[in-house]
Amino acid sequence: MICPNSTEIKGITYWSNKTPNSTGYPNYAECWFNFSVPSKNQIKVTFLEYDLEENCDFLSHSDDNGEHFYANEQSITLQAQPNGYNNFSSFHFISDGSVQKLGFKISIETQGEWIFNE
């Protein structure tokens, strides 16, 4: 299943695991959202909505630094690699077949260049 709701508005990408007017995400859902952090830039990811079945349904982020799981964070900042290359990233959502919750919605926004501390 592809998470159905990915839109861009004024340079900000919004990604969600639910469709408009839905009561939540389906059981046994699995989907990814792939993107890259451009060289010498950082991206702010903001969790606008977050209602997942605890310890059963998961939203994770993977990049060159490994896989990280999220629960109720407000926002995170992702940075490009210090060697000047893009940082390829992926969000992964997976749900089991029991309780259906409302789901999540995140925004992904480029914050501009950052200075590497070498």
List low-pLDDT spans.
Answer: none
Q: Can you tell me the CATH class?
A: Mainly Beta
**What portion of residues belong to β-strands?**
over 45%
**CATH H-tier superfamily:** Spermadhesin, CUB domain
The overall average pLDDT, rounded, is 79
Pfam family, one: CUB
Protein name: CUB domain-containing protein
InterPro entries: CUB_dom, Sperma_CUB_dom_sf
Keywords: Disulfide bond
Relevant terms:
118 residues, mainly beta, Jelly Rolls, globular
Task: Summarize the helices and strands and which ones pair or pack.
Elements: E1 5-9, E2 12-16, E3 30-37, E4 41-51, E5 58-63, E6 66-70, E7 75-79, E8 87-94, E9 103-113
Antiparallel strand pairs: 1-2, 2-9, 3-8, 4-7, 4-9, 5-6, 5-8
Protein name: CUB domain-containing protein
Domain CUB: 9-111
Organism: Panagrolaimus davidi
Task: Tell me briefly what this model is.
It contains no helices and nine strands.
Describe what this molecule looks like in 3D.
β1 (5-9) and β2 (12-16) form a beta hairpin. This protein has no helices and nine strands. By secondary structure, the protein is mostly beta strands.
